[in-house]
Amino acid sequence: MKNNEEIRKLFKLYLEGKADQQQEETLLRYLDSAKSDDSQFSDLIQEAWSKEASVREDSSEVDLEFGEILAKATIRQQRKSQRFQVLKYAASIALVFSAVLGWYSYQRNQVKPAEAIKMLSLTTLQGEKVKILLSDSTVVFLGGSSTLKWPSRFVKGHHRNIRLEGEGFFEVKRDILSPFVVHSGNIQTQVLGTSFNITAYPSDNIFSVAVRTGKVRVSESDKGVLKKLSLLTPGMKLDYYNKDQRYVVGTAKARDINSWTTNRFIFKDDNLFTMLSKLERYYKVRFELKSPCLAGRRQFNATFNQKSIKEVMEQVRMMSGDNIHYKITKDTLITVWGEDCK
Question: What is the residue range of 274's domain?
Fold first, then answer.
């Protein structure tokens, strides 16, 4: 049996798609032996991840077909499932490597029917917050007027793909074999295990991704091609402008990123129109702005911690120097106007 360093070299060749048949057989024999330890390859896997091209073809069609096959199938022999555990991850993080084709072909010939994966969907009401536990133990806090779509179970060794419209805070269960990917419009957010917030309402021009813990890769998807935008670490935030497809990377206080999940709402340099739009989602209310000139007149920086909507509006009035007035009707309709605004 070859020594540990030689085995690592074989695994690296496999990841790069350069291993010949004899080298692959040697690697398979090692993985099938009692000496096999997946953790010894973790650094090679991370290196392959980091070297993945920033612009590549996003194999959505292959990904979909592959998912459908795995959704209907399972490995017939438990021993073979363990044997290929590491190689399955190599395929999941490196679809661009030629080694995937051989592995994919092998899997197609080794499966039998299994329970199909169902797609689940949940849409929240205005002012509603929901906590969702996914099958992999990932926790999602879904904000008001938002929609989350996810599979009833995830397939080990394959991407954990979900879709979000609206706002969600994610505490992703770490699984190096199965990267977690959130699809929101043209934006894809990919992680292994971390916590982060996404705001992606279809009606908004700006989509945002902010990281509280761990590391997140944000990419733009355009006609099946992924373009890497930025790698975010704790306290970093990316704003993506949908209309002109540009983005800006800034900072945010890590501890404030999921503050909305505990009814602590933070506004930073937001104009009145933007602030009222967010408040509509946080509270079950509707705003009627009678003085449009107020919308972008000034920027607001405020934190509302466990406040009722009446307390919030009273604070807005005071911050405006008593230039902004409001009237609450039946607790759901709030009329806003300005004294010096026609």
Answer: 263-338
